[in-house]
Hints:
Blueprint: H1 3-7, H2 13-50, H3 86-90, H4 105-124, H5 128-150, H6 155-168, H7 177-202, H8 209-222, H9 227-247, H10 260-284
Helix pairs in contact: 2-4, 2-5, 4-5, 5-6, 5-10, 6-7, 6-8, 7-8, 8-10, 9-10
Amino acid sequence: MTFIGSLAEPAVFPWVALVIGLAVGSFLNVVIHRLPKMMEREWAAQCAELRGEPVPKTEPYGVARPRSHCPACGHRITVLENIPLISWLWLRGKCSACGARISARYPLVELASGMAAAYCAVRFGPGFAAIAAMVFVWSILAASAIDIDTQLLPDSITLPLLWLGLLINIPGTFADLRSAVIGAAAGYLILWSVYWAFKLATGKEGMGFGDFKLLAAIGAWCGWQNLPLTILSSSVIGAIVGISLIALARHGRNVPIPFGPYLGAAGVLSLFWGPQLTRQWLGMI
């Protein structure tokens, strides 16, 4: 047996997925932090062009450049300081140069990414479906964290996720292609209809267009059959969290609550256990 073949053994594959997931989680932290800033720079440049003004020159800024550094003192993060989970614990959650606090969200994102990848490996076994599921969960994780921070769901995540879901389901990986196409269209149109009904009734916007695209992506991955479960689950999770935040006086009633994380969590539930949960739900009804 070759070395590559041994990594695909059912007993080994989840551990390999865990390690890869931790590394991907470190990259997702960079995406979560930098992608909104990249979007702001792009919008500023577009606004300047529309006003006929010269586009302001700025230093190159992207996912890969500049190198990771402490936002407080500019200290460049070394390789040893960038080991997922271990480095944060070793540094006790502080910058080695200035002692500034490093948010606990960084190791939490890495841990969530690693554990999710390991579960995908266990749930689907070695093969294409497990790898595809990992990509889905990682994308949901990044989009949800960005939505929590900025109340934005970037098109650069939701739209590729939508098209990738349709491509992955060509061979019927998680749903047949017909169900995936209908799921993508229905996912977008359902929330689009809710948005306009709410706006016409109240004059206010109840959600953003990014939510439409995210539900469309979930429909493309899981099929239209799992959309009722996704919408119901996300509404229940969102209501529980929202009421809890208001009850604990940590969130004002008039402050918008991002819906993307709840949609994403419900989408992951649908991908893993959609048919089983739907049968139980219908059984209770």
